[in-house]
Each structure stands twice: as C-alpha cells, then as structure tokens.
C-alpha cells in the first residue's frame, strides 16, 4: 500500500488473506448490516461456484450440429453451407438420411468438412445414436442449431390429439432432446452456443400458414431456450432463438405461388418474403464467437410483420 505525503497507510494485507472490516473499539462484533452483506455474498458465491470465470476461446477445430438440414430449399441446408464456409465442421442431420448425405457431400466437395447423419429428433435413442457418431467422427461440438420442424395448418377444432402430439414431439421435444444431449458436452467443455428456430406464429398465434399446434410448439421453443439460458449460461453455454416470419420453403405447403407471395410480402413493412439466407445469417452470427454475451434472447427476422 503506497503512502501519501509520508502518512503511513494501513498495514499490508498478505497475499490471499481475507479483507477484514476494522474491528470496532473493544473488539465488538461488526454491525449486523455487514453480517447480512457477508451472508449475501457467501450465498452468491455458492450459487456461482461452478461458473467458469471466462469461457475458453473458440477452437479452430469445432463442430456445429444442424438439425433439419436435408430439405433442398430449407433453412437448415443454407445454414450448414454458410457455417462450413465460415470454418466449422458441420454435422448435418435430418429424418431424410439420403438428403443429408448429399448435403454433406456438397460441402466436402466445396472444401469444407461435413458428416451427414440420419436422425429423428423426437426420438431420444435416435438423437443419442446420432450424437455418438458426431462425437466420434468430428471435432468437439460448440454449436447446435435446432432447425428440424414440421408445420400444422389444421384448424383448432379439427386438430386431433395425435396431430398435437406429433407436432409437439418434433418441434418442442426435438429441441429439448438435442439440446440436452449436446448441451452436456458443451457444459463440460465450458463453451457452447444453442440457437433454435421459433416462429412469428408463436407471437401472433399463426396467421401465415400453420395454426394452433404449431404456434404452441414454437412458443415452447422460446420458453425452453430462456430456461436453458438461465441454467447453462453460467456454464459457458448460451441459448437463443430466432423467430422468422414467412420464408419461401417447402414447409409452407410447397413453393409459394405469385398471389400468396404477394399477399405475404404486403403484410410486412419491408415488402418481401424472407429468404433462407436472411435466417441463416442471423443464426450463424448467434452461433459464432462474437455472440458470447447474448443469451436468452429471441430475434425477429420477419420484415416488420410483427414487432415484439
Ligand atoms: N419457412 C418458414 O416460413 C418458417 C417460418 C418460421 C419458422 N420456420 C421454421 O424453420 C425451420 C426450418 O423450416 P424450413 O422452412 O427450412 O422447412 P423445411 O420443411 O424445408 O425443413 C424442415 C426439415 O426438418 C426435417 N424434419 C422434419 N421432422 C424431422 C424429425 N423428426 N427429425 C429430423 N428432421 C426432421 C425435414 O425433413 C426437413 O428437412 C422449421 O422448424 C420451421 O418451423 C420456418
């Protein structure tokens, strides 16, 4: 401790020694306010004891898992290609095993590294087997993009319990299973990014193509990512959502005809329907090294169709 104008400061504290409150005259106990502060800070340090002080740097060799990457005009395929260009090894997963083999071959031909793996995201055994392959054949998983999903344009009164369960199984349970399976390794390594796709339908109760079961399943995705963010961010794993408006892919009941496209474009502020690259670019950023302080967030990419 330096002295000022020759006035001696308090005695040096040996390195590592606890900071002590000066005792009151006569060695009396510190006032109760200090004791409460100490209790609060002890509680805080117990809650945070497993938190890494800082996350490790992004490794050069790292893998992103992209579910729902098989569809030829889909968001997953566009994201997988983008991530490969950005230096990730990519595990492309889909119910359609042949399609992801093709996607992986395309990425490899373009000079990237990829593995196509068939998976049913709603089935825990299938997710576990797929994850085991990825872990055996690719570098450590740092990113997970939960994209696999199905639509449900059925009116509320016509929605059967079976359809409800199927939509929830793929869109909500699938995100839960993949995030839990890959999240464990991320938490062990102290670094991970989970980004899941919700939908403007969760915010507006449908209104574009799908209806109640789909909207509810996509609402669950937002809530789940917030809860995961709360538990896993202190372990180095962020969790976020993107919430697209209409994008011209096959999930909208096939390619949009001119009239539907024009109606959808007119409903937003930007005046066009979204593209797979609009969504993929945002997801790639949230999976990347610069997004480490973003967690529990939901980003709209809807051309102003809805403001949240
Ligand atoms: N296109 C849009 O307008 C839009 C808008 C908002 C949100 N989204 C969401 O974006 C995601 C991607 O949709 P897309 O537009 O690319 O549709 P898409 O139909 O082209 O892609 C979805 C992919 O998920 C796969 N899949 C379905 N069930 C699966 C399962 N059980 N296990 C593994 N894979 C499965 C399909 O085979 C398909 O390849 C979906 O979750 C969708 O709900 C799409």
UniProtKB/TrEMBL annotation:
Where is the region Disordered? 1-71
Which residues fall in a compositionally biased region of kind Pro residues?
Answer: 8-17
Domain Ketoreductase as annotated: residue spans: 62-250
Low complexity biased stretches:
18-27
Q: Which GO terms describe its molecular function?
A: oxidoreductase activity, acting on the CH-OH group of donors, NAD or NADP as acceptor
* InterPro entries named among the record's database cross-references: KR_dom (IPR057326), NAD(P)-bd_dom_sf (IPR036291), Sc_DH/Rdtase_CS (IPR020904), SDR_fam (IPR002347)
What processes does the entry annotate via GO biological process terms? fatty acid elongation
Keyword list, A-Z = Oxidoreductase
Domain of life per record: Bacteria
- Similarity remark: Belongs to the short-chain dehydrogenases/reductases (SDR) family.
What name does this protein carry? Answer: SDR family oxidoreductase
């Amino acid at each position: 401790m330096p002295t000022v104008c020759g006035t001696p400061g308090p005695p040096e504290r040996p390195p590592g020694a606890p900071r002590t409150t000066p005792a009151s005259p006569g060695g009396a106990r510190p006032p109760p306010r200090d004791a409460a502060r100490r209790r609060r800070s002890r509680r805080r340090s117990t809650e945070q004891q497993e938190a890494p002080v800082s996350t490790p740097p992004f490794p050069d060799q790292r893998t992103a898992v992209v579910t729902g990457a098989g569809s030829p005009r889909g968001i997953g395929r566009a994201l997988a290609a983008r991530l490969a260009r950005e230096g990730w090894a990519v595990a492309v997963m889909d119910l359609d095993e042949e399609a992801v083999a093709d996607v992986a071959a395309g990425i490899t031909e373009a000079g990237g590294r990829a593995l196509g793996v068939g998976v049913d995201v709603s089935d825990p055994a299938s997710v576990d087997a797929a994850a085991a392959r990825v872990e055996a054949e690719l570098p450590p998983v740092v990113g997970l993009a939960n994209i696999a999903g199905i639509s449900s344009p059925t009116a509320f009164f016509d929605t059967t319990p079976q359809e409800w369960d199927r939509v929830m199984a793929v869109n909500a349970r699938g995100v839960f299973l993949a995030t839990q399976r890959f999240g464990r390794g991320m938490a062990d390594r102290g670094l991970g990014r989970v980004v899941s796709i919700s939908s403007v339908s969760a915010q507006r109760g449908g209104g574009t193509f799908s209806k109640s079961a789909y909207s509810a399943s996509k609402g669950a995705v937002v809530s789940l990512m917030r809860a995961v963010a709360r538990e896993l961010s202190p372990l180095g794993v962020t969790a976020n959502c993107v919430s697209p408006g209409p994008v011209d892919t096959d999930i909208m009941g096939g390619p949009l005809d001119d009239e539907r496209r024009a109606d959808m474009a007119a409903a937003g502020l930007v005046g066009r329907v979204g593209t797979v690259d609009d969504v993929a670019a945002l997801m790639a950023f949230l999976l990347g090294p610069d997004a480490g302080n973003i967690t529990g967030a939901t980003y709209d990419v809807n051309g102003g169709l809805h403001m949240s």
